[in-house]
Structure prediction request, 340 residues.
Amino acid sequence: MIDLKDFEYDELTEYIISIGEKKFRAGQIFLWLHKGVESYDEMTDLSKAIRDELKEKTYVSTLKIREKYVSKLDGTVKYLFELPDGNCIESVVMRYHHGLTICISSQVGCRMGCRFCASTIGGLIRSLTAGEILNQVIFAEKDMGERISNIVLMGIGEPLDNMDNVITFLHNVNHERGLNIGYRHITLSTCGVVPQIYHLADEKLPITLTISLHAPNDEIRDAIMPVNHKYKTAELLKACKYYVETTGRRISFEYSLIHGVNDSLENAAELAKIVKPLRGHVNLIPVNKVEEREFTKGSKEEIRAFCAHLTELGINATVRRELGADISASCGQLRKKVLK
Ligand code: SAH
Prediction:
């Protein structure tokens, strides 16, 4: 069975023509799908004959809310969604002054193996389809009853390890007949799959790219991020430069501060040196405690000093505010708990 949300707009149009329907029907269907209908019978401007025809070979995919938590501290909402095959993924909706931002998953599990990350502990089960990535936005928006205006691909999975489906998703979510979310309101985060950064740059979508750097040199990066065995820090930074030059967009860097591993003032100085030529913003994230992992964060003073040192060295750096602290909003943690 075909999920029509796996098609891009033009592919949907071709499909609709191929089953002998008029072209404009594709526009109607695309609109309905993005409104979060759960069956063809909700598409009330289509005749019963067309709906029956569609039902033969295609279906309207949905996501079931398996669990939902609302933070009493800041209104952050965490969803555990169940996919049609029973697998679970997490999405988080955060409230900022400029509107709602959703953090979505791109895979069930992850094969990147970052040592501090909860999402990779059980390995990769499978990649999400384009429709499944999109459904997180559609069904969270439907449940919230409010427009979601920003998307970050920073949930479970490595988006650049699921490139084709992520690109289809980006095209669809940006489409004016879809959710119409501007590329400038979309951020994609990667641990550094270098060839795919070039590929993404060549797609020339003006999204924001953020790099999970987490280390100022190969020695530390090798120790905490296995992807660095394949693509060294220098190669990664070279790909970042290409991205900036090709798309005209800035890049930002994520840096999880892990006590005694990457959070000394010397580390800050080394970090400043390598990110300076790219003029990227550095987001510092005090590492979140993951049950199975031994990593801890430093004191508030140490974190502040690290940030201040970067600033002194001319780097635009901020410590990320923690949202949803009472509902284990950091990704991977909820899915893991339910798996147990
Ligand atoms: N795979 C992509 C996107 C998902 S991760 C990537 O690696 O960028 C979202 C961000 O959270 C990444 O920067 C990741 O390195 C970081 N992260 C994962 N586990 C963390 C933890 N325990 N504490 C702090 N940040 C963590």
The chain has twelve helices and 14 strands.
